[in-house]
Design brief:
Length: 196
């Protein structure tokens, strides 16, 4: 069997086993701070198996970033992706509306976390304050609950390659809320919950 086919088959098996662990972790307790933490540790462990994720198997983004599906469940299931973000790529503070976990395979990405401090009553306006930051590099990861807010930037001169697990597949993502703290403004993308 050619080596590449073998890697793809081993990767598919590992992703399937990982997703089975995700479900057995959340089956009893659901999504809680402690199960999210457990999911992050499992995702970090999978990302450490870098032989399963040779870059030759994943096309580089043409610009900014690209997400390659590894295992996308049907209906309201989860999505596991390999994401590649080019050096300098950044994302303004945003709330995915759904939990997610990230773990690095190579490269480095800084995540800054925020908390919303206004009451949400003024349409189009929001105030957020920074509450922490972390650099995700090989051997590390992060997890966010449904309405946590983060911003990201790839640091250094190499692409940031990592695994991303989302509570919903990207094709069925809820509305993402984007914050622009310097203008105290906020806007939301349309939900894709019923698109696919
Ligand atoms: Fe994000």
């Amino acid at each position: 069997m050619p080596i590449q086919v073998d890697v793809a088959a081993r990767r598919a098996r590992a992703c399937k086993a990982f997703m089975a662990q995700v479900h057995s972790t959340t089956a009893k307790e659901g999504i809680t701070p402690s199960t999210l933490h457990a999911l992050k540790l499992k995702l970090v462990a999978l990302a450490k198996r870098s032989d399963l994720f040779p870059l030759a198997d994943f096309a580089m983004p043409q610009a900014h970033g690209r997400s390659h599906p590894l295992l996308v469940e049907e209906d309201d299931g989860h999505g596991l992706y390999l994401s590649i973000s080019l050096p300098g790529k950044e994302a303004a503070p945003h709330d995915h509306g759904i939990w997610c976990a990230n773990a690095a395979i190579s490269g480095r990405e800084r995540h800054v976390f925020y908390r919303r401090t206004d009451d949400g009553k003024k349409v189009g306006s929001a105030e957020i304050v920074k509450v922490g930051e972390v650099v995700i590099e090989p051997g590390t990861g992060m997890v966010m609950a449904d309405h946590d807010i983060h911003s990201t930037v790839v640091i250094g001169d190499r692409p940031a390659v990592g695994l991303a697990l989302y509570g919903y597949a990207l094709a069925r993502f809820p509305s993402v809320t984007w914050f622009h703290p310097e203008f105290t403004s906020v806007r939301a993308t349309p939900s894709r919950r019923h698109a696919a």
